[in-house]
Design goal:
This protein is of the alpha/beta class. It has 28 helices and eight strands. Helices cover 50% and strands 8% of the residues. Helix 5 crosses helix 7 and helix 23 packs across helix 25. It starts with 7 loop residues before the first helix and ends with a helix.
C-alpha cells in the first residue's frame, strides 16, 4: 500500500492521545456490517435480503422501490413471499425440523434461513479475506489483541465471538436490558444472533418493536458513552439506526453535557481509495436540533487503528475484572441473610498514609490466617521463577514462607524429586533450621525434605576442569564471573563447586542477579537453577548458624 503523508506512527500517536484524554476508560467498539464484509465477505443487511429475494424468485429492487426505499418494509415484503417457500420447499426441510415450533410469525422462516446462511459463512477459515489476504489478516490479528472494555454490534454473525472469546455475549435487547451486565469484557449483539434466529431484528415489525424500547436501550448504552470512548466502525455516518441511537443519547444527556459526551465519539470510515491519506479530524453531526461534535477518522487501512488499541493498558485482565464486578453486584443486590459476614473495613484511597497500603479486593469468608496471608502473594499462584527471584532479592512483593512450603510448592509448582528448587530460605524463615544446621521437616509435605536434601551435582567434565583450571586460582564468585575465556554454563558449575567460606555470600547472589539481568541465566537454565539452590543453602545455613 502507498505510504501516507502522515505516517502510521503519527496517526497512532494522535489517536492514542485522544482515546486517553482526561483519563478516559478503555474504549468500546460499535461494530457494523462493514467489518463482516471486510473480514468474512458476508453481505450486509440489504445484501442478505437480495440473496433471499432471489431464493424466492423475487426482484429485490422491485420490493425496495415498492417500499419507497425503506429496507425494513422491503424485508417484510420479501419475508411474506418467502414464508410459503420456507414451509413447503424440501430445501428447507431440515430447518423446519429444528425450528418449526419457534417460527411464530411471517418473518420467522426468513430469519431461520438467513441465520443458517450466516452460520455457513461466518467462520474465519481459508477462503475468507481475513485469513487469505495478508494485509487483512494482519489487521485481524491486531483487532484480536485490542485492549477494550467491550463491543457493541448490530451484526448477526459470530465474528466478535471468534475474536473476543473471553467476552460474555448478550443477545438482543432483552439480553442487555434484563441482564446483570457489568459493562466490561462483554459483547452486546443488540440486533440478535444467527445462533438464535428469533432474536434477529429484520423486518419492519421487528424494527417497530425495537424502536419502541430503544429509549431503554439508549439509557443502558448511555452508561457506556458517559465513561468510555466509543469507536463506530463498519457503519456509514448516515446510518439510520446509528442516527436514532445518537438522537436518544443526545436527548438523555441534555445540552449541558453534550461536549463531554462528544469527546468520546469516534467514527472510523473506510476510504476505498488505497492511495488516499488517512486523516483524523474534528467534525460534527446535528442530532435532535443539537450540534454533536465528533472525531472523524478516514482511512483505507485499519491496521494503524487496531494497532493503536493494542497499545492501551489495563491493570487486570478484562475477564477477571468483570467477574470481580459481578460478585460485588450479586453481593449487593441479592444478600443472603443466612450468611454471616464480617464488617468490611475501608481506608479512603486519599487518606493520610493510604499510600502505604496495597489494594486487595476479595469476596468470601476469611479466617484470621487468610487475612495474614494477604500480606504476601498467595502460595497457590507460585511459579518456579517466583522462588528464584525471591531468593535473589529480585521480587518486590514478599512471599509467605509457610504458604510457600505447605501449599505453593506442592500444589502449584508441583516439582519432582529430580528438580532443583530453593527451599532453605523458607525453612529458615519458619524457624526450622537450628543453630547447628539441622532441619526440622515435621508436618511438611514430603517433597520439601527431598528438595532440601537433594545433592547438587555437576558433570564429570566440569568437575575435572574446575580442579585443573579454577581451584586455587579463581577463588571468588566475581573472579569466576569475570573470567573472559569461560563459557556461562561452566561458570555456573564452577560457582556450585566453589568452596564456601572464602568469600562474602552476598557476592554469590550479586553474580547470579547479573546473569539474570544479562539474559544469560535463561540461556543456561539447568546450571542456573543448581547455582541458585547452592546459594540458597549456603546463605540460609550461614544465617541460622550465626556465620557470615
Amino acid at each position: 500500500m502507498p505510504a501516507n503523508t502522515t505516517s502510521d506512527d503519527e496517526l497512532t500517536g494522535q489517536l492514542l492521545d485522544l482515546l486517553t484524554k482526561n483519563g478516559a476508560a478503555l474504549p468500546y467498539l460499535f461494530i457494523g456490517s462493514g467489518i463482516s464484509r471486510r473480514y468474512l465477505d458476508l453481505p450486509d443487511w440489504l445484501g442478505l435480503l437480495r440473496v433471499f429475494a432471489e431464493e424466492a424468485d423475487e426482484n429485490f429492487d422491485f420490493h425496495l422501490a415498492s417500499a419507497n426505499g425503506e429496507p425494513s418494509l422491503a424485508a417484510s415484503s420479501i419475508a411474506a413471499r418467502f414464508h410459503n417457500i420456507w414451509w413447503n420447499d424440501d430445501k428447507y426441510a431440515a430447518q423446519r425440523v429444528e425450528f418449526a415450533e419457534s417460527v411464530k410469525d411471517v418473518g420467522g422462516g426468513l430469519k431461520v434461513a438467513i441465520s443458517d446462511y450466516i452460520k455457513d459463512h461466518q467462520r474465519l477459515e481459508s477462503g475468507k479475506p481475513g485469513v487469505d489476504d495478508v494485509h487483512l489478516a494482519r489487521e485481524l490479528d491486531l483487532l484480536r489483541k485490542s485492549v477494550l472494555d467491550g463491543v457493541i454490534t448490530t451484526n448477526y454473525d459470530s465474528l466478535t465471538d471468534q475474536l473476543f472469546d473471553t467476552f460474555k455475549p448478550y443477545v438482543g435487547q432483552d439480553g442487555l436490558l434484563l441482564s446483570d451486565a457489568q459493562f466490561i469484557a462483554e459483547v452486546y449483539k443488540i440486533h440478535g444472533s444467527a445462533q438464535t434466529p428469533s432474536t434477529l431484528v429484520l423486518t419492519a415489525e421487528d424494527y417497530e418493536r425495537f424502536s419502541q424500547r430503544n429509549h431503554y436501550l439508549a439509557a443502558k448504552l448511555l452508561t457506556i458513552f458517559a465513561e468510555h470512548p466509543v469507536l463506530f466502525v463498519g457503519y456509514s455516518i448516515n446510518d439510520k439506526y446509528i442516527e436514532e441511537i445518537l438522537d436518544n443519547i443526545v436527548t438523555a444527556v441534555g445540552p449541558g453535557r453534550i461536549d463531554e459526551i462528544s469527546e468520546r465519539i469516534f467514527f472510523v470510515e473506510w476510504n476505498p481509495d488505497a492511495s488516499s491519506e488517512a486523516t483524523i479530524e474534528q467534525s460534527s453531526l446535528v442530532r435532535g436540533g443539537t450540534r454533536l461534535p465528533i472525531t472523524r477518522i478516514s482511512t483505507h487501512s485499519l491496521e494503524w487503528v487496531w494497532a493503536t488499541l493494542t497499545k492501551l493498558e489495563r491493570p487486570f485482565p478484562a475477564a477477571v475484572l468483570r467477574e470481580l464486578r459481578n460478585y460485588v453486584y450479586e453481593l449487593v443486590t441479592d444478600p443472603d441473610p443466612s450468611q454471616t459476614r464480617e464488617v468490611v473495613r475501608a481506608i479512603p484511597i486519599d487518606a493520610d498514609g493510604a499510600d502505604k497500603y496495597r489494594v486487595v479486593f476479595g469476596v468470601g469468608a476469611f479466617t484470621e490466617k487468610d487475612l495474614q496471608d494477604l500480606t504476601s502473594i498467595s502460595g497457590r499462584t507460585l511459579q518456579r521463577s517466583d522462588l528464584e527471584q525471591d531468593v535473589l532479592g529480585l521480587r518486590k512483593r514478599l512471599l509467605d514462607a509457610e504458604s510457600v512450603l505447605m501449599r505453593g510448592i506442592p500444589e502449584s509448582i508441583r516439582p519432582t524429586s529430580r528438580d532443583h528448587l530453593p527451599v532453605h530460605k523458607y525453612l529458615l524463615e519458619c524457624g526450622r533450621i537450628a543453630p547447628d544446621g539441622t532441619v526440622n521437616y515435621a508436618g511438611l509435605p514430603a517433597i520439601i525434605e527431598k528438595l532440601a536434601e537433594k545433592s547438587i551435582d555437576v558433570g564429570t567434565y566440569s568437575r575435572t576442569r574446575f580442579e585443573r583450571d579454577i581451584r586455587g586460582k579463581l577463588d571468588t564468585p566475581q573472579k569466576i564471573a569475570s573470567a573472559p575465556d569461560l563459557a556461562t554454563y561452566f561458570k555456573l558449575d564452577a560457582l556450585v563447586l566453589l568452596e564456601p567460606g572464602g568469600y562474602n555470600i552476598d557476592e554469590f547472589g550479586e553474580v547470579l542477579v547479573g546473569l539474570v539481568e544479562s539474559g544469560e541465566a535463561a540461556k543456561n537454565l539447568a546450571g542456573f537453577r543448581k547455582a541458585v539452590c547452592q546459594f540458597d543453602r549456603q546463605k540460609s545455613t550461614l544465617h541460622a548458624t550465626g556465620g557470615q
